[in-house]
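In the laboratory, one determines a bound structure by crystallizing the protein with its ligand and collecting diffraction data. In a computational setting the workflow is compressed into a single prediction: the sequence and the ligand go in, and a structural description comes out. We illustrate the idea with adenosine-5'-triphosphate.
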Amino acid sequence: MRVKNLALKNFRNYADERFEFGDGVNVIAGDNAQGKTNCVEAVFLLATGYSPRVKKDRQVISYGKEKAEIKLEAASLYGKVEVSLSYYAQGDKKILINGAETKRSGELFGNVYAVYFSPQELKLIQESPEDRRRFLDIAISELSRKYFYSLVKYKKIIDQRNKLLKEPDRETVLDTLPIWDEQLAGYFADVVTARNDFIEKLGPEAEKAHAFITDGKEKLSVSGGLKYFGDRDDIIEQIKIDLMNSTDKDLALGYTSIGPHRDDLKILLNGEDVRAFGSQGQQRTAALSLKLAELEILKNHYGEYPVLILDDAMSELDEARRKRILKKVEGVQTLITCTDHDAPVFSDKNFTLFKISDGKIMEKVGL
Ligand SMILES: Nc1ncnc2c1ncn2[C@@H]1O[C@H](COP(=O)(O)OP(=O)(O)OP(=O)(O)O)[C@@H](O)[C@H]1O
Ligand SMILES: [Mg+2]
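The predicted complex, in C-alpha cell form:
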C-alpha cells in the first residue's frame, strides 16, 4: 500500500495543503502544535473513519468554517484507490470511495489499510480493557468489514438487553430474554471467533517484534480470548448456555456480565504485568510491538504492507531502540512525526522530509 498524496482543506489548522508522499520513510517535522499529528490523523481517518482524538466529527473542521475536506490517493496491489471525506458543521459527513458515495462508514475499511501508533496508544498498556478492545476492533475491522458490522449489531443488542435487565417486571424480562439471546448469540459468535483468530496471530508476532526492538533482551507475551472453541454452530450453542446460566447474575447486576464487551488482553513483560512493573520506555516498546504485530498480520492478509503511521513514537526511546524500529520498517511506507530535535535519527536513511509550520509545508527535502 502506498499513499501517493493527501489534500487537506479547512481540516484542523490546515487551510489548504497537499502532501506528495515518498514511498519509504516520510518524516513530518516541526515544533509543537504546528500540524504534524493533524496530517497523519487525516490519513488514518481516511483509512478507518476513526481517530483516537475525535469525539465529535465536527471538531476536525477548522474553527469558524462550514466544511472540512480531506482526500487521498493511494496505490495497492489491487489497483488505485481514492477516498475522500467531507465533514459539515451541522454534523453530517460525506464519504466518497473511488468516486462513489456511501452512507456506511464501515465501507472505508479495506480500501486504504493503515496502522497508527500515537502516544495515546500507550493506553493500550496503561489504561482500561476498553482501550485494548478498541485496538482489537479497529485492527480486525481492517481485515474484515463483516466483523465491523457484526460488532455494531452486537453492541446494539447488548444495549437493548441491558435496558431489559433493568425492567422491574421480572416475568416479562424472563419471557423476552431468550428472544434477544437468539439474535445476540450469532453476532457474539462472529466477534468471538474473529478475536480469537486475531489474538492467536497477535501473540507470536508481538513477541517477535518486541524481541527485535530489544535485541532479544526482553520477552513480551500477549494472550486473551479463547473461551469458545469449535465451529460456529457449536460456539453459538455454548454461548446460549452461558447466557442462560448468567441470567440470575445479570438480573442482579442490571447488565450483561459475559461477552466480547467484557474481553481483555493480558500483556506480560518477562512474565510480569507490564502495566504495573514496566518502565516508560518498556511500556512504549510494548505498545509499539503490538502495532508492529498488527502490521505483519495485515501484510499476511493483504499480501502487502499497510501504511505505518508513527506519531511521536520515538520520544522516550533510547537510540538503539529507535534504530532497530527503523530497521524493522524498512520496505514499509511510513509516516513519522517528530520535533526537529528528534529528526537527526533519520539522517542516514533514505527519506522525504516535510517541515511543517502553522498548518503549512515550509520545506520539502528528499525524493
Ligand atoms: N478544528 C481546528 N481548527 C483549527 N485549529 C485546530 C483545530 N483542531 C486542532 N487545531 C490546532 O492544531 C494545532 C496543531 O495540532 P497538532 O496536534 O497537529 O500539533 P503537532 O504538530 O502534532 O504538535 P506536538 O508536537 O505537540 O504533538 C493545535 O494548536 C490545535 O489548536
Ligand atoms: Mg502531535
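The chain has two domains: 1-113+306-367, 125-304. Keep in mind that any predicted model is a hypothesis to be tested, not a measurement.
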